[in-house]
Amino acid sequence: MDKAGMNQQAATEPKKVFVIPPGPEFRPEHREHSILYAPFAASAMLLSPEKRGLFEAWLTGCGAQGMPREYENMLRPVRTVKPVFSPLEYNTLSVIAGFNCNFHCSYCYSAGSRSGAEIASEQLEAAIRHLLDAGRSSSRERSIFITGGGEPLLLRRVLFPAIAGARRLAAQNGLSLTVMMMTNGALINDDIARELLAPGIHPCISFEILEDVQQKQRGHYRQVVAGIDCLLNAGLIPSVSATITPGNAGRQVEMLQQARHRFPAITEFSFDPVVDNSLFTSAVELEAFYTRYLDGFFAARHFARKNGLHLFCSLMERFDRLTTRYCRGQLCLTPGGSISICHTIAAPSDTGYEACVYGKADNDRLTFDMEKFTRLMNDDLHAHPECNDCFARWNCGGGCLMVRTRLDKASLDAHCNFTREFTRRFLYDNLVMTVPSGINDLLKEPENNIY
Questions:
Q1: What is the model's pTM?
Q2: What is the mean pLDDT of residues 201-228?
Q3: Domain of 351?
Q4: What are 251-282's pLDDT values in tens digits?
Q5: CATH number reported for the structural domain that contains residue 189 in this entry
Q6: Angle at 159 between CA 348 and CA 336, to 5 degrees
Q7: What string of DSSP letters covers 355-371?
């Protein structure tokens, strides 16, 4: 990964416009160009060396002349940061139904949390009533995310009736409700597929797609494929989420090719890099993995665009909005009834659990420790001086709490370099993806916005 110059940038106070140096992935005709990135203006453009000098002078107030009006218009802010001040603002409920699982994935972040703990139906119902209280928020949009920790379909006897009740309550209160479930897919049969379809639960299958990788990292390949077939036969098209490890970082295009061949109806995919210090012997090895992930991901992104597929990752979501915190936090209900800020830190045995729990489902209602919630939300980019001069700061927001909890200092530095490199590649990829590769086909300025 190219560290030299990663943070060389000019920015206005409080660092809202950045000049990002070129990267090795830039086309030959752009190797001397930089990226002008204005996150608050939702825009970016390529700068020739001459234009870079002028912009740096303009941005630092050293220019002999003022900035031309067309560039001022391009840099005019159109977005603001909207922090969360109260858990009452959350319109998404995350649910971890239990910690039992029928898989033993090699990289599982919650394997140490395995227990027989299950969510109580009355606690889940209390959380759903809170979510679907029409008077709590002006928004009509609400969502429920049934996530991992264990395999949620092992507790479908609790989940399915609760979701059916949630549908009825949402309709009664004039609310729109979406429901998504993360599942390994191995338990799905025709009956379960119909049970998912009836209350409108969208399944997202955790699946490595390639048989040899699935068998090595997760197992149960044939059962998962059979489960996906059952969903498709029921008319329910899932999305697929794959974890990228050293074993498949260079095979991401192949993964999409295989998925397109075996499951042509599936078009939504998410490929995220693994977070597991034990897989890497050093930060240098981790950085090499991140480079392979980036090369593979952007090659797969190009393949997806050409073939009518949609490929995402968590970092891409950071460009949808500006933030001072990596995520907005969560209203995450866990077995035992506690409310955690993060679904990956949800069991008493998890590192950081006590610090992350800020509420409880108790006595038929939710209660919150507002002082603790405020402390959690204040752990943002302003709390980390190393973020001050980073061009990814308004997208990264100081980094993911789970990543900060699980990685050592050297590995965390490697992850920060990875985030900056992803930001640079994502901006450049969006700028050039519709431009021919001829040497004279430089991007027009300043019309090229990234959003």
A1: 0.90
A2: 97
A3: 89-373
A4: 999 999 999 999 999 999 999 999 888 899 99
A5: 3.20.20.70
A6: 20
A7: HHEEEEEETTEEEE-HH
